[in-house]
Amino acid sequence: MIVTVTPNPSIDRTVTLGTPLTRGAVHRIGSVTNEPGGKGVNVARALGLAGLDTIAVLPASDADLILAALRAAGVPFRNVPIRGQVRTNLAITESDGTTTKLNEPGAPFEAAALQELTHTVLQAAQGASWVVLSGSLPPGIPVHWYADMVAALSDYDCHVAVDTSDAPLAALAAGFGTAAPDVIKPNAEELAGLTGHSAAELESAAAQGDTGPVVAAARQLIDRGAAAVLVTLGAAGAVLVDGDGSWLATPPPIVPRSTVGAGDSSLAGYVRAALEGAPPAQRLQMAVAYGSVAAALPGSALPAPSQINTEAVAVRSLSPSAA
């Protein structure tokens, strides 16, 4: 069983444009899709397509439209009732795959709902193989909640993955010395924010095939107590760093259509490979296979197992000098 936790779920509305997005202009929309979303929900959807047992934990009233959408998608869930409605996030994708996202803040949390969410997560984690904590935190949930959950889950016989950003990610990293997840999944900008590097320099170096700066930054987090750092780098692929080594995986050429859910798909691929007993390099390979397929799909569509070809992803161990 894989438990995914999405404190700030959403209905993801994706619109496609046939021309570049121009500020202040009138655009004709080519297509519109609406899917149940939020990072943890996307992970659950992707893993469910692979036939794995999942349960998505999320806050939503019993009458919220997202629950009907999850039922329609065949995603098992446990919802924690809240007063407000789940937010709607808008993604605008252009013909070259460029994606602009407009995300609402989410419904405010009350103390009782937060207590119930915490209890529901810990209850669902009993007997789970993995717990995946993903996404932003809505108003009312303290920035250290992910760090607190990782510490609480350290008493459970499960692996933990976290994919978040901004203040919740900084609070999580601050607690690595006492409780760290089994894997965190920052992108280059998030990694830079944690380590004092320049995001532009990390991205530029990776685009030119120089993974040294990314590995060095990720190694800082390993030295602070992180178990494994999976750094997604867009078209440049991804880097995985743990206590034993570092690896780079690069995807095959694709025609990008939408980046919505690509990072979540990467994490789903990593967890799937881990459940299959794959070593780190093959976990990374599966992660990049999932992420590249997702980026080639329209809207917030997620990869099916039949679309995954790990052999098309080149993976190699990085030299000690790159670490």
Automatic annotation (TrEMBL):
State the UniProt keywords alphabetically: ATP-binding, Kinase, Nucleotide-binding, Transferase
Q: What class of enzyme is it?
A: transferase
Q: Which InterPro entries does this entry report, sorted A to Z? A: Carboh/pur_kinase_PfkB_CS, PfkB_dom, Ribokinase-like, Tagatose/fructose_Pkinase
Q: What is its EC number?
A: 2.7.1.56
Q: Does the keyword Magnesium apply?
A: no
Q: Which Gene3D superfamilies match?
A: 3.40.1190.20
Please tell me one Gene Ontology term that the record gives under cellular component: cytosol
| Gene Ontology MF, one | ATP binding
Q: Which residues form the Carbohydrate kinase PfkB domain?
A: 23-305
Superkingdom, natural source: Bacteria
Alphabetical list of PANTHER family matching this protein: 1-PHOSPHOFRUCTOKINASE (PTHR46566:SF5), 1-PHOSPHOFRUCTOKINASE-RELATED (PTHR46566)
Name the protein family.
Belongs to the carbohydrate kinase PfkB family.
Protein name per the record: 1-phosphofructokinase
**What is the scientific name of the source organism?**
Mycolicibacterium fluoranthenivorans
